[in-house]
Amino acid sequence: MSGPSAEQLAALAALRAEAEARVRAARGRDALQQLRTDYLGRKAGRLTAILKGLPALDPDARRAVGEAANAAKAAIETLLEAAERALAPAGSEAPRPDLTMPARRQWRGALHPVTLVVDEVCAIFGELGFTRYVGPEAETERNNFTALNFPPEHPSLEMHDTFYLGEGMLLRTHTSPLQIRVMEAYRPPIRVTMPGMCYRRDPFDPSHAPAFSQVEALAVDEGITFVDLKASLTYFARRFFGPSVRVRFRPSFFPFTEPSADMEVECLICHGTGCPACKGSGWMEILGAGMVDPNVFEAVGVDPERYTGWAFGMGPHRMAMLRYGVPDIRVLFEGDMRFHDQFVDGG
Ligand code: PHE
User: Fold this and answer.
1) Which of 84, 143, 161, 288 could, after both became Cys, cross-link 177 (CB 3.0–4.6 A)?
2) Shared-domain flag, residues 252 and 303
3) Does 308 contact ligand 1 (Cβ within 6 A)?
4) What SS3 state is found at 135?
């Protein structure tokens, strides 16, 4: 073949080679789009112009040039499409995510350390046959004081110690009124733990709070002695704080128990050397206890000639401080997530 069609075929081959080289070298979506317009654009594409000129050629040249032009168009089109596919999806030229950025914090719920203590105390006594009993925080003066053998002039009855609600009601100052409720509802033998919040007009300081939890326990049966009380509480302390923990009992006084004792545990924050939490003594009082006073049995109609019993009231806030090394009770009331986050998997 010779003449104009040979020239056109050579020009076409050059155009195709040029287009293919430029597509291969192109970087980015805009560059590819520009090449598509340059070569294949409907109005001014250089290959389009050749195709548009075909009708003016004589039949042989038209066929030869037409075939070559169509093949070039298909080849450039294929190359452009492949190059476009190789680009990331539209819009992703935006900055890529910074994988070194710290992840957003995911908060998970957890039981309060005092709740963990209360549940564990009740579970340990649960193994010994104690069931769990709860009652109201707004109590009668009779259940909170009178039936528990408080004399009318007892200092606890003073306005500065107790939140009175009026009409013979108050916010219970301890969980001992639950002893009255249980003994009026059930006959002996009784073995029960009674957790709950209590209220006293104490200002916040490192070891006091105006609201605090207690767990009360009561065992009433024939033949119960002070030995049962000491043995049960010592067993409990070893289960709760560890087999080698040191405990001691000191004589005490409560209107509703006789004799009475306080149980102290070696301060686990300073290990007995003295710190603000144990007021320098090396010991922490965790509960008051004693043998149920016969006057209390009389008040609830239990025969004190036949039955004896022991009771204790312990402070889970103090115990949480000991167990988790919290030097100030106020931390247990503040709800600071940096503190509570440590208890997510059960403390
Ligand atoms: N109720 C007493 C208190 O709040 C504790 C206690 C309970 C003592 C039961 C003896 C028996 O301090």
Assistant:
1) 143
2) yes
3) no
4) coil
